Amino acid sequence: MKTVQTIKELISIMDNYQDKLIGFVPTMGYLHEGHQSLLIKARQDNDVVVASIFVNPAQFGPNEDLDRYPRDLAHDTALAKEAGVDILFVPTAEEMYPFESGITLHAGELSTKLCGATRPGHFDGVLKVITKLFHLVKPTSAYFGQKDAQQLAIIETFVNAYNFPVKIVRIPTIREIDGLAKSSRNVFLSEKERAEAVHLFKALTLATDIWKDTKNIEEALIKGKAHIEKNTTGKIDYFEALSYPNLQAVSNQVDHVLFATAVFFEKARLIDNIIVDVKEV
Questions:
Q1: Is 122 annotated as catalytic?
Q2: Which residues make up the binding site for ATP (predicted)?
Q3: Is residue 30 annotated as involved in ligand binding?
Q4: CA 20 to 30 Å from 36, out of 53, 71, 183, 202?
């Protein structure tokens, strides 16, 4: 595995692989089994695997946890190598954003729902870094986890709308044995909060089961939200159900329904979701 820190070197290397299948896994580091599942799938599908580790300041608001975001490059490098990564791109913020162009990307209506409702500009920052990384790596396929379902929906829509020559591959959420979604931010949970956090997935499961039985979205959301309020000390940011991937109100015409939640604990904001295939209900 070769570790690369500059854009110039990455471009030079990638120019040698344009006749190959290139799999790309963009990450912010502090890798866990969820990231590993993306890397393994990329390794299975492609001739060359590129991963990036970059804590992107463009997607953090002024009061968010950019400085506290966990980092462990030695661990990440070892995990990437074990998963079969060929090229690990680890740029600095100065390397990625050497000057302010004044040109921005706006994620539009999809970014006003769910996480975007309380994180203005977050998904604009995601599109900014993804655009740069896709141009540099020129991947055949890029791999994203379904835990960040809104991000995935926005990236899929962006890629399709602007004809990026890359296939977006969805990978199911990887969970702990008790159901908690793997997340780099889980490390910030206290022992008590860690025990409580399993109820996010339990609440989502409860809500989806109620909806499957009754088709009553309002009842499903009320009972799912109540489960979190009863069983955790966290503060609910949202608990919602929308069509997927266009993130609109659920109607009889939708193919997939996204049940999603975000909950604030003392030092961490956790998200989770379940996507229901309507045809299987």
A1: no
A2: 28-35, 145-148, 174, 182-185
A3: yes
A4: 202
